[in-house]
């Protein structure tokens, strides 16, 4: 059973970079055909896929966020990290890490398409 846990600051100032880490237990970030995603939910926009890093290190980002997004991984700590730059109050949301196994690359934008989820962490962008 894979378990995911998000961590990071709950408050970020406008124009700064949001950084969140997802720690994986019960599985390996290099497990074959697994995709490790960041997703957010806000009252105004609903569920929004941000991007993923695959078991082989390949990344894929939402076109609407790609210019500000970076996802990296730490193999020694079995973690992956989201960095979202130049944040605005529009980036205020509950942020989740999630994963699934798939034969072909995504993206996957529906909640039911993911097998495992973290509990989520609230991030507020405010001065």
- Count the strands? 11
Poorly predicted ranges? none
- Major sheet attributes: 7 strands, mixed
- Topology order in helix (H) and strand (E) letters: EEEEEEEEEEE
Give the topology, please.
Blueprint: E1 3-7, E2 11-12, E3 18-25, E4 34-42, E5 46-54, E6 59-61, E7 69-74, E8 79-84, E9 93-101, E10 116-117, E11 121-125
Parallel strand pairs: 2-11
Antiparallel strand pairs: 1-3, 3-8, 4-5, 4-9, 5-6, 7-8, 9-10, 9-11
In words, what does this structure look like?
By secondary structure, this protein is mainly β. 0% of the residues lie in helices and 50% in strands. It is built from no helices and eleven strands. The chain has strands spanning 3-7, 11-12, 18-25, 34-42, 46-54, 59-61, 69-74, 79-84, 93-101, 116-117, 121-125. The strands form two sheets. Strands 2, 4, 5, 6, 9, 10 and 11 form a seven-stranded mixed beta sheet that branches. The protein has a four-stranded antiparallel beta sheet with strand order 1-3-8-7, with no helix packed on it. The model has no long low-confidence stretch (mean pLDDT 96).
């Amino acid at each position: 059973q894979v378990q995911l846990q998000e961590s990071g600051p709950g408050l970020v100032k406008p124009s700064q970079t949001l950084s969140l880490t997802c720690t994986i237990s019960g599985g390996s970030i290099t497990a074959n055909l697994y995709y490790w995603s960041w997703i957010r939910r806000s009252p105004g926009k609903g569920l929004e896929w941000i991007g993923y890093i695959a078991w082989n290190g390949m990344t894929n980002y939402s076109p609407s966020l790609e210019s500000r997004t970076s996802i990296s991984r730490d193999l020694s700590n079995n973690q992956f990290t989201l960095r979202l730059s130049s944040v605005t109050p529009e980036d205020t949301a509950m942020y989740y890490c999630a994963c699934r196994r798939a034969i072909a690359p995504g993206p996957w934008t529906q909640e039911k398409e993911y097998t495992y989820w973290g509990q989520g962490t609230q991030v507020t962008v405010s001065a």
